[in-house]
Amino acid sequence: MTVSAVLVIIMAVLFACGVYAMLERSLTRVLIGFLLLGNATNLFLLIVMGRPGVASFFGSGDVEEMSDPLPQALTLTAIVITFAVSAFLLALIYRSWQLGQADTVVDDEEDIAVRDRGTVEEDQMDDETSIEDEDDDATTDFIGTDTAPITVLHHRDLDGIRDDAPVDRPRGDARGRRDEGGEPR
User: Fold this and answer.
1) Between the N and C ends of the chain, which has fewer C-beta atoms within 10 Å?
2) Domain covering 5-56+65-116, topology
3) Single pTM value for the model
């Protein structure tokens, strides 16, 4: 086995353990699983980088001897993101411990009710929506009918409405009229 094969096996084990730990109901185990996934990601980026070489500065060596700087930058980014999310998870664990003296996530009553709801109730809910399709007289578009709850008013409808807001008009007379040639009157 080469060094890369050992790193690949370690990375795979870290990924598997991290996913398994994140599927638990304990927030502490979720945090440990997230940290394992972060370390596995860093190992993955180390494997992708290839063989180590000289620093990738201009003039420091031949191009074939330089190492790729992108995986190094991604590794630094992954470390920062892992640290930030870990700090957030630690705050959640601390708050959960303060409130309930436990760090396990429990189902709410609504989740249990939805899980226990059978297919018969789902079919009944579908039947209720089909009632709307059968009633063609019921509409939500009231504009233009006598019983419309919304009335659109124009300045010509009532004398109290002033419509003297400034508007953009083409050059010409006050109403923007033009003659046949397009010239203002």
Assistant:
1) N
2) Helix Hairpins (1.10.287)
3) 0.55
